[in-house]
Amino acid sequence: MDKLEMRHTLLAAKARKKMSWDDIASAVGMSPVWVASACYGMNSASPDIAKKICTTLDVDGDIAEALVAFPTKVWDEAIPQDPFIYRLYEVVGVYGETLKDVVQEQFGDGIMSAIDFTMEVDKVEDPKGDRVLLTLNGKFLPYKSW
Amino acid sequence: MDKLEMRHTLLAAKARKKMSWDDIASAVGMSPVWVASACYGMNSASPDIAKKICTTLDVDGDIAEALVAFPTKVWDEAIPQDPFIYRLYEVVGVYGETLKDVVQEQFGDGIMSAIDFTMEVDKVEDPKGDRVLLTLNGKFLPYKSW
Amino acid sequence: MDKLEMRHTLLAAKARKKMSWDDIASAVGMSPVWVASACYGMNSASPDIAKKICTTLDVDGDIAEALVAFPTKVWDEAIPQDPFIYRLYEVVGVYGETLKDVVQEQFGDGIMSAIDFTMEVDKVEDPKGDRVLLTLNGKFLPYKSW
Amino acid sequence: MDKLEMRHTLLAAKARKKMSWDDIASAVGMSPVWVASACYGMNSASPDIAKKICTTLDVDGDIAEALVAFPTKVWDEAIPQDPFIYRLYEVVGVYGETLKDVVQEQFGDGIMSAIDFTMEVDKVEDPKGDRVLLTLNGKFLPYKSW
Amino acid sequence: MDKLEMRHTLLAAKARKKMSWDDIASAVGMSPVWVASACYGMNSASPDIAKKICTTLDVDGDIAEALVAFPTKVWDEAIPQDPFIYRLYEVVGVYGETLKDVVQEQFGDGIMSAIDFTMEVDKVEDPKGDRVLLTLNGKFLPYKSW
Amino acid sequence: MDKLEMRHTLLAAKARKKMSWDDIASAVGMSPVWVASACYGMNSASPDIAKKICTTLDVDGDIAEALVAFPTKVWDEAIPQDPFIYRLYEVVGVYGETLKDVVQEQFGDGIMSAIDFTMEVDKVEDPKGDRVLLTLNGKFLPYKSW
Amino acid sequence: MDKLEMRHTLLAAKARKKMSWDDIASAVGMSPVWVASACYGMNSASPDIAKKICTTLDVDGDIAEALVAFPTKVWDEAIPQDPFIYRLYEVVGVYGETLKDVVQEQFGDGIMSAIDFTMEVDKVEDPKGDRVLLTLNGKFLPYKSW
Amino acid sequence: MDKLEMRHTLLAAKARKKMSWDDIASAVGMSPVWVASACYGMNSASPDIAKKICTTLDVDGDIAEALVAFPTKVWDEAIPQDPFIYRLYEVVGVYGETLKDVVQEQFGDGIMSAIDFTMEVDKVEDPKGDRVLLTLNGKFLPYKSW
Amino acid sequence: MDKLEMRHTLLAAKARKKMSWDDIASAVGMSPVWVASACYGMNSASPDIAKKICTTLDVDGDIAEALVAFPTKVWDEAIPQDPFIYRLYEVVGVYGETLKDVVQEQFGDGIMSAIDFTMEVDKVEDPKGDRVLLTLNGKFLPYKSW
Amino acid sequence: MDKLEMRHTLLAAKARKKMSWDDIASAVGMSPVWVASACYGMNSASPDIAKKICTTLDVDGDIAEALVAFPTKVWDEAIPQDPFIYRLYEVVGVYGETLKDVVQEQFGDGIMSAIDFTMEVDKVEDPKGDRVLLTLNGKFLPYKSW
């Protein structure tokens, strides 16, 4: 079973169970963004967590194996089109150079890891319109000289 | 004076004054990421803030006018190459679809605004290696039906 | 059922019923452009409207569910080829910079939302050749400084 | 004098005169969007109008000649990056196919001309946030068969 | 039935009938280039002509409906590869700017329509090698000022 | 002197002399499209014709040398943006496959040469709007088998 | 039967018959490169040669018809990836401008035809490593002036 | 002195001396294609040959140094536009896969080197039109297994 | 059987046998990277090695034939997206020019072959985090002059 | 002084001093590849090393400051053209997927860092042609789950 088939099965099971990502995340003891990305096939799960996801969503063990497999991470469009995802791309375009300068001024020459990395979504209620809070947390990796 | 010349002048003045973005931000009463982006030419400042930036960095009033001008926001590469900026692009590629699902499940069909939007950088000290914390805060905009 | 299958079913039903978008729009109490975009899978409908669309077109309830689902909005060609759509793209290319200046002069630094947004099509009869009137109506969003 | 130099001269004169596009448009008896696009070098003016623009902005007659010249219309990016212009591009991507169907249902097989074409910008005040109204008005051109 | 299936059916029928485009064009009273483009799915036919094409090629009435449908015109490669089509693309690249100047000098600022447009192919016999004569005939559309 | 400088000089001289391409073409005994393309730097002239062009436009002999040089033919955009040139590109996209079939049916497997090639522009007056007539005339080259 | 199916059939038959392109070429009295390109679907064969190819490879007459059909020549990648084909592309990149100059110095302004064109492959044995000899033979086509 | 300046100097000297590539090649004892590519900056010369080229063309010793420098080989367009160079690209596109098969059948799995490589241009006179003969000669390199 | 089917069969057999690439490589007496690349379809094996791979993985002889076939080497994305592969691409981008200079300074003008080439992967244990050691070993090929 | 000017100055000084990268690397106590990349502007040096590089090459202190500045790492071509660099790109294309599998089998799901990374060049003398040995050494970074 490949990641694509796994993903269809898991999303269908999630719909059938009427569970949110928060529900599943609580059930397996992980974070909603990570659980969703694993079910979308963009991260691998440990055998233990994979089993918990399958139990929670009532799907059989083949799926657990597919969740454990190491994914090849690819996306469809170099420049995303869906407005939700494009806005994130736009933020990288507009603020990328600024962030590089502000972060490197504090941390030195290096990058924020996208591998040793976690991310959370929060909702901030606001009478003028609720706000989405995305928190990206990545290890700083200094460039090596040798 | 265009934004490019303004930017060179401001970055040179910043280096001469040996001030960090934090220092300038405190002096003008705004956030470091926003101040840096205005000095890079990717945001416009109000006349009042523009004047404060110029005073802080000891540059003359033409610069203030350039800071107030409404920028055309463009970036050089559709797919960024500098490793710092590429990692952010990679996060959008790997997690974009996941984030869309997690956010829309909580907020309904819509997007996180990149216009009614703020962003902060923080440093989390960690014995295994300090971590960069990026916080994106955007108003949720529901799609309209009509 | 995904949006693509939904779309084929709805367009076939529309042909079978010999209804125009105007007819369907009147029947469900919404605007023709929005109704068409929802049936094409580029907007989500509320459960209530989805049900009305299905009743109007005599299709079953699975379709209603697909109309309610939040779409991922993508299009086939970065630069459109069909002459009808290309002309719109050309207008953006030729007048984009001009519009930005004219609008921002009146409204300040910001954008016209494509999310809090509606659009209408009208026909203006003219002996020298009828004219198409497209009206785009989007909320102005000022850039935030912080 | 080429269109680029003309444009810089006209925009500088406009700033010096502290006139808005509305002011200039009233003075020359044309529409603001068209006047702005001619000054940006994306449309040619008749000798008569060109002279009026020059008189209004107090610039000399070489500029009039440049305004009269037939432009080669090009734009910098196949996919625009500035958020203002991108939102228009996004509208074409999201609604292009829908518009083609809605318009052709009413008018027959053909296109909306981008040449025999006018456009207006209006401001609709709204307590929840002012709205931008763009009106595109193009002659319908039926495909010929032969 | 979509345009692709229609096209396969019509080309197969044409081969079976051993008719040339000239033969079919004469039978239906239209021009060979237009008839071929309608059968390839790049133009729509009136119901009357569609019926004649179907009668001429002995195919059933579903095909007529597909011929009448308004096509979405797309092509596979932004830069064509087949040597026949590439040579036409090359002519546009090499002579495009020249033609713009020569035509606009005679007609004023505007374009040659590709919609109100016809095209013919002729063969000029020549002892040094026969020559292909392509005649493009498009309405001149002056840019509007407003 | 390179082709670009030559072109600027020749277009300036043409404006100064207030001659049309037709005027120059008559004076040198060649066709307007070819003369324009040589002056734009997209074709080389024989020394004899080059001299006549220089005499006609009152420019000195360096220009003649540049007219005689063999050009490297390049154009700026793989997909043209100016509406005049784009319409020609669109014709190639919409009708390319059709033309290949219609021509090869008459001539056999091969191409229309873009090298052994001439082109003319004519104006057809028409009360409903004048029409542009482009005539492309290229030698048919059959594919060789060996 | 289309060219793709033809190609699979012919390559399978060739493998079954354990014949090399040289063997087939000798049997049909043509050159190996041309025979291979016809079987790959990149050239059309005369009915006579097509029949000989079919007889040699013991395949039935439908294949002959497909060999006679005029191909649309397309290739998968604008920049080839397979190392064998990339090296040829690299030669065009590195030496293209040089070849243009060397050939045009000898022949005048024009091109080497890729249509009235043949090509051969030879093996030159060499103790330091055998060498591949590719010979391209194309008619010189002078640019026409008119 | 960089390769670009070197190239301009050498081509100007060649024009001044009215020497062909054949003349220069004979004078320095190398092949015309190689000499031209070295002067264009796409190959490096040994100090000895560099000096001979400079002597032959009467240019000073800085040029010799630039001829000896190891070039970075780049070209302007991924898909060439000049018709002369495009025809070579087209040959690679149309025949690349065929050549790979024909050559590998004779030589085994591997490539024709573009580094251990030479190339010649010859003219074959022909009453029906002279022909260009390009001979590419590259060492066959078998893929290694390990 | 084509390379894609072969690859699926071999990877499935490897999973069933629970063998690592190291295990298979030892069994067939070749290196793990090469064995993996042959099973992925990016290198051809000799008949002898192909048979050993099939015996080791208990698959039948058709697979051996597919392993022996000469592959056409293509990859999906010009710019890789999976983070593992992108990091290698980034190394080529960041260090490519540097490596060219450092290697050519030692070896002269030429390249490192990617054909007469081997590669190994090693693991270096390190308390601060294990390290990956990639060793690329390619024959130096000097450019020929002729 | 920006990185580009710094690079020109350093390469000129290196040529003047007739030092190899090995010589400079020994003098400053770092590795040749790293020293070259810092001088090319693709890595930043510590103030101490920067001073040593300047002393070794006899250039003044402004250069040291430029060496210390944090670079924005960009490269000219998404797909490199110079044959030396292209071969490295080809290795990533041909072996990227293979390496991912071989490395992840040994190390788990993760990547080889291109930041905590070093690289060496060695020469292996060989009577059949010397070989280039590139050694890449990067920390393995496991993907985090959270």
TrEMBL record, chains A, B, C, D, E, F, G, H, I, J:
Its EC number is 4.2.1.104. GO terms for molecular function: cyanate hydratase activity. InterPro entries: Cyanase, Cyanate_lyase_C, Cyanate_lyase_C_sf, CYNS_N, Lambda_DNA-bd_dom_sf. It comes from the Bacteria. The active site is at 87, 90, 113. It is an enzyme of class 4 (lyase). Residues 74-146 form the Cyanate lyase C-terminal domain. SMART domains: Cyanate_lyase. Keywords: Lyase. Gene3D superfamilies: Cyanate lyase, C-terminal domain, lambda repressor-like DNA-binding domains. It catalyses: cyanate + hydrogencarbonate + 3 H(+) = NH4(+) + 2 CO2. Catalyzes the reaction of cyanate with bicarbonate to produce ammonia and carbon dioxide. Belongs to the cyanase family. HAMAP family: Cyanate_hydrat. NCBIfam families: cynS (TIGR00673), PRK02866.1 (NF002773). This is Cyanate hydratase.
